[in-house]
Amino acid sequence: MNWDSEITRHKKARGRDMLILAHYYQRDDVFAHADTSGDSYALAVSASRAQARLIVFCGVFFMAESAAALAREGQEVFIPDQEAGCPLADMIDPEQFQSALDMITRHIRRPVVPLLYINSSARVKAAVARAGGMTCTSSNAELLVRAILAEDGAVFFLPDKNLGLNTARALGLPEHEIAVIGPKGPTSALAPDHRLIVWDGFCNVHVRFSHADVLRARSAYPYSRILVHPECAPKVAAAADYAGSTRGIINEVEKARAGEVLFIGTELNLVRRLSKARQDLKILPLRESGCVNMNKITPEKLAAALRTIDDPESPYRVTVEPDIARLSGVSLERMIERVERERSAV
């Protein structure tokens, strides 16, 4: 069966009534069918502004949930594999969040603002919205943490510890103002002067990159540049030449000079795609680390989702309870509004 031909046929028949979104980490044979691609922030914005009635999300489930939360009346969201989950998103639930927040607010003298990485479930996004917090992505975490701290608030950053710690390092926050908390409580006593409290979660893809990988790359190519995602361990991010969002890494590759050697510490599908796009560079993975869940979306599954898109019982439709959808949408909208406001003020 020629899945590509079937997908193309469905796209042509639907025209502007359907929008296929794909995350940068998707495999090439799926990514090729995207109408819009991007990182988590770009896709959240695209979903919030989409005019199409049917949105097909090629990514992992929390992303499709976010699109469903932002969808307007009459819009429907689909994902080609509902089992494409995210272990990081499963590392905290609403009850754990509330318990940790209660503990933090008992010890911190400043107002505490929860800042939730978008790699999280709709239920946790809703809980964060109820607590007055908002969502963030790796591309805007530094901007939002800086803005909250400037207002003399404290930040409860969850669920990715490394992103939280690397954001703190980028902002020059001293270690004595940072604490780590997890399901079993804080790793050390919470103090009134703590300004950033991070949850003890991690990304399976990015936690695999080690400081030894950086040393091996430097040894093999002393004049190479190393670009990593801030979900990597702080020691890896500190040793790299650049630590930034997926879009930021792409920008660094796009402006690299011909002949440069780049090692990239992020999801393998993207590294390989960048290598194909810039054959005048030598682009190598810092380590081969792929996302099993991103790779669950295949052309065959995408074709199946498009084939059943009019079926009220389609197994690919993403539904979120109305109250959860409304509140998780609030946490996402607060992010978009705050980011756009902060950027326009610069």
Class from helix and strand fractions: alpha/beta
- Quote the average pLDDT: 93
Distance between the termini: 52 Å
Biggest beta-sheet profile: 6 strands, mixed
The 3D shape can be described as globular
Adjacency order of strands in the biggest sheet: 6-5-7-10-8-9
For the secondary structure, the number of strands is 14
Helix content: 40-55%
Radius of gyration, taken over Cα atoms and rounded to an integer in Å: 20 Å
The count of helical stretches stands at 14
pLDDT < 50 runs, ≥5 residues: none
SSE arrangement, N to C:
HEHEHEHEHEHEHEHEEEHEHEHEHEHH
Strand content: 15-25%
Write a short abstract of this structure:
The chain is 43% helix and 16% strand.
Question: Which terms would index this structure?
Answer:
346 residues, alpha/beta, 6-stranded mixed beta sheet, 4-stranded parallel beta sheet
Kindly describe this structure.
- By secondary structure, this protein is of the alpha/beta class.
- It contains 14 helices and 14 strands.
- The longest helix has 24 residues, at 322-345.
- The radius of gyration is 20 Å and the shape is globular.
Question: Secondary-structure map with pairings?
Answer:
Layout: H1 3-14, E1 18-23, H2 28-31, E2 36-38, H3 40-49, E3 54-58, H4 61-70, E4 76-78, H5 94-107, E5 112-117, H6 122-130, E6 134-136, H7 141-150, E7 154-158, H8 161-171, E8 178-182, E9 185-186, E10 196-199, H9 211-220, E11 225-228, H10 234-239, E12 242-243, H11 246-254, E13 261-265, H12 268-277, E14 282-285, H13 299-307, H14 322-345
Parallel strand pairs: 1-2, 1-3, 3-4, 5-6, 5-7, 7-10, 8-10, 11-12, 11-13, 13-14
Antiparallel strand pairs: 8-9
